[in-house]
């Protein structure tokens, strides 16, 4: 095959492969694209929590509440705001159910006798987390989850 013939063959092959390459590029780009609003809705749809609160010191805040997101609902008194808060924390890469690290230095203060337990599914992941207000770290952890958890004190 001569050089001219070889170049012509390569040109024909490139024209044939270009549409396939473009389709592949579009598919890869779609897979790598950041999550859209619908992804957020799908993540929310996998959120169903049972929240048990006691000792909050506020009328109507103690009890067992269900929280469902997308659409917001359940028996939680502030379901929409609670789902929005969980979304906000997830968007910042915060795991709101993570325990205080064992090596954390926490202030020795007492924030009241309120306790809570949250079980269920958050963004498709199992949750079983306990909360109290026994020191500065636990108070901060509780406050980070307001309004999922009620005002306490």
Summarize the structure.
The protein is α+β, with helices and mostly antiparallel strands and 153 residues long. 20% of the residues are buried.
Record the SSE blueprint:
Layout: H1 3-32, H2 37-45, E1 48-54, E2 63-68, H3 79-91, E3 115-122, E4 125-132, H4 136-144
Antiparallel strand pairs: 1-2, 1-3, 3-4
Describe this structure in words.
There is one protein chain. The protein is α+β, with helices and mostly antiparallel strands. The chain folds into 2 domains: 1-33; 37-144, Subtilisin Inhibitor, CATH 3.30.350. The chain is 40% helix and 19% strand. It contains 4 helices and 4 strands, in the order H-H-E-E-H-E-E-H. The protein has helices at 3-32, 37-45, 79-91, 136-144; strands at residues 48-54, 63-68, 115-122, 125-132. A 4-stranded antiparallel β-sheet has the order 2-1-3-4. The radius of gyration is 26 Å and the shape is globular. Mean pLDDT is 80; it is low at 9-44.
Q: Regarding CATH, which class of the largest domain?
A: Alpha Beta
Shape: globular
Structural class: alpha+beta
Unreliable residue runs: 9-44
Total count of domains = 2
Strand order within the widest sheet? 2-1-3-4
Give me the number of helical elements. 4
* Mean pLDDT figure: 80
CATH architecture of the largest domain: 2-Layer Sandwich
Q: What fraction of the residues are assigned to beta strands by DSSP? A: 15-25%
